[in-house]
From TrEMBL:
Coiled coil: none annotated. Gene3D superfamilies: 3.30.530.20. Transmembrane segments: none annotated. InterPro entries: Bet_v_I/MLP, MLP-like, START-like_dom_sf. This is Bet v I/Major latex protein domain-containing protein. Belongs to the MLP family. GO terms for biological process: defense response.
């Protein structure tokens, strides 16, 4: 059985790529306000949410169950609107040796829409652990929640 894998989902969003990416790149602490499945997040170590030396603690729902983990920002590519976070500890550490989330946002067309691409790279601690398919559902739902909030805010501002 394979211990390592990669899951990818691409979701069309109505928010322009720059605006959607900005929330994750500069306002990550706001995700818990917009996503129903993210219950709480706080800085665990460090002072800046967007510094690679900072560790955040998350509480969230996957497959109907509350989970916790920590993350650190591993890679920032502002030019390509792409960030990678390493998740560890908590419930992640019980099941995975390696767990990385990558978000890349690209403009889709001249109409202001975009595509949010989430990639989950993982290595299970043993073959009895299931792939993190529930994460794809969670990321899809959070993407929809954030997109709806940003679009709503855009309509109010105009």
């Amino acid at each position: 059985m394979v211990l390592a894998g990669k899951l990818i989902t691409e979701l069309g969003i109505k928010t322009p790529a720059n605006k959607f990416y900005k929330l994750f790149a500069e306002e990550l602490h706001q995700v818990q306000v917009h996503c129903e499945r993210v219950h709480h997040t706080k800085l665990h170590e460090g002072e800046d949410w967007h510094d690679t030396d900072t560790v955040k603690h998350w509480t969230y729902v996957i497959d109907g169950e509350v989970h916790t983990s920590y993350d650190s920002l591993e890679e920032v590519d502002e030019e390509n609107k792409k960030n990678t976070w390493k998740l560890f500890g908590g419930d992640i550490g019980k099941h995975y040796k390696v767990f990385k989330l990558t978000l890349q946002v690209t403009d889709k067309a001249d109409d202001g829409t975009a595509v949010a691409k989430w990639t989950v790279e993982y290595e299970k601690i043993n073959e009895d652990i299931d792939p993190p398919n529930g994460w794809m559902d969670c990321l899809s739902k959070c993407t929809r929640d954030v997109d709806a909030h940003l679009i709503k805010g855009e309509k109010v501002a105009t």
